[in-house]
Amino acid sequence: MYRRTKLDLAKELSEIRDAGLYKEERTILSDQKASINVRYPDDSEPREVLNFCANNYLGLANHPELIKAAHETLDTYGFGLASVRFICGTQDIHKTLEKQIADFYHTEDTILYSSCFDANGGLFESILSAEDTIITDGLNHASIIDGIRLCKARRLIYNHSDMNSLEEKLKLAREGSDIWDRSGLEAPPHPARNIMIATDGVFSMDGDIGKLREITELGNKYDAMVMVDDSHATGFFGKTGRGAIEHCGVLGEVDVITSTLGKAMGGATGGFTTGKQEIIDMLRQRSRPYLFSNSVAPPVVGASIAAFDMLDKSDDLREKLRKNTEYFRSGMHKLGFDIIESVHPIVPVLFRKFEDDAVLAQKVSKDLYEEGIYAVGFFFPVVPKGMARIRIQISAAHSNEDIDKCLAAFEKVGKKHGVIK
Fold first, then answer.
1. Hey, which residues are catalytic here?
2. Secondary structure letter of residue 255 according to DSSP
3. Which of 132, 260, 347, 349 stands the most exposed, by the fewest C-beta atoms within 10 Å?
4. Burial level of 295, CB count in 10 A (0-12/13-18/19+)?
5. Around Cβ 133, how many Cβ atoms within 10 Å?
6. What tens digit of pLDDT does each residue of 226-271 get?
7. Which of 281, 259, 133 is nearest to 197 (CA)?
8. 3-state percent helix, strand, coil for the chain, nearest multiple of 5
9. What is the pTM of this model?
10. CA 296 to CA 95: how far, in whole Å?
């Protein structure tokens, strides 16, 4: 029965709380935007705080054009489909959005999922087998890691963004396993049939950009496919918003792209895989999260179509986000905080120089909240031990005054805890 399990889980939860690592949820009472109404703790009075931890990069989560599109689609196509795609869950708007995404990323076709987590979870096992090899960056997102675990292909991990390490793994995969990887001296080489390199376009905890140009060149050299998860770049990164792939100059050269509709593109739900025709066709036949999950809801599809249309017409929001990012990063540098260099609106504020970095991240986050800044601390196992941080995410919805308030709060709280002088 449950009694023994209950005791074990209660003990483990108590240890997590005692270590100051228990993750608490804060209740938002408003729509998602730069300034939100939050009740935290649950028995406290609600208060207005500035949100600096949402994936709402372009501020579209409550944009009137997307809300209007969602309403119109709801009225025309209904609330949901109560079916998976291959039975009776494909509407013309699903096909419209899939073509729109393929055109956006210069690919051959697209398949929609309930989330990008599902897209990654259903990718690898559908197209690769035990005769193949996946080579994955050591800091890839959990969804890529879990997707690879579901696949029978051999897995090799290269050091984060280390192209020498990647090439070593490519040589090993292409030439075959050495004696240490198999059963001994008598084992013959076992070259991979197909190889796929998997990487994030932008790494969500550090905000650094994958070396997609170099990765693509190595893929061509060793006849390996390249897969990029562009979730933290779609719609706002690159000259025209076509993500890290455009930023790195490899638009049209990547074999498989996965991404989300749940961040910059309105922040609701939904994800997709876009790429080579045969890959997409096989995913429709074999990808379990696609075959056994309901279709993306019509209002989400309608609003997503509107989001892509909007971003094709103007780059005003992208430009505002770029300027906001530069402004905040410059301010944090001047204050003396330890941040990871990048041009991305993910700005990790690190506490790696302090012994109790995880506890410190929680304390700083709590004190920032008291100053009216909503920013969450991240620590092991979300990030490696000793690398706790507060991850700030800048939005086009933020004003300069919002960013000034955030900088002032960081200065006050940082000095209080000895993070800066």
1. 204, 232, 263
2. S
3. 132
4. buried
5. 25
6. 999 999 999 999 999 999 999 999 999 999 999 999 999 999 999 9
7. 133
8. 45, 15, 40
9. 0.93
10. 12
The encoded tokens of residue 115 equal 């989330």
Could you please report the per-residue DSSP string of 21-72? ------EE-S-SSSEEEEE-STTSPPEEEEE-S-S-TTS-TT-HHHHHHHHH
| d(C-alpha 254, C-alpha 245), whole Å | 8
At 16, give phi and psi (nearest 5°). -65, -45
Residue 177 identity: S
Cβ contact 234:241 at 8 Å = yes
What is 94-127 written as a DSSP string? HHHHHHHHHHHHT-SEEEEES-HHHHHHTTHHHH
User: pLDDT tens digit string along 337-372?
Assistant: 999 989 999 999 999 999 889 889 999 999 999 999
Residue 343 in contact with residue 369, Cβ under 8 Å?
A: no
Q: Is 199 helix (H, G, I), strand (E, B) or coil?
A: strand
Average pLDDT score over residue span 80-94:
97
